[in-house]
Amino acid sequence: MGFWNRLKAGWYHKGLPYSTLPAIALDFILPRTTGARTFLDVGAGCGALSIPLARAGKKVTSLDPSEAMLGYLEEDAARENIKNIKTIHAAWGEATLKPHDVVLCANVPELLKEPEPFIRDAEKLAKKAVFLIENADPESDKFYYRELYPLLFNRPFGERTDYMKTYSALHSMRIFANVEIIEYDFDQPFDDIREALEFWKEYLGIVTEEHDRKLTDFLERKLVKKKGTLLAKFHKKSAIIWWRKKPGKAL
Question: Considering the entire predicted model, what is its pTM?
Answer without folding.
Answer: 0.94
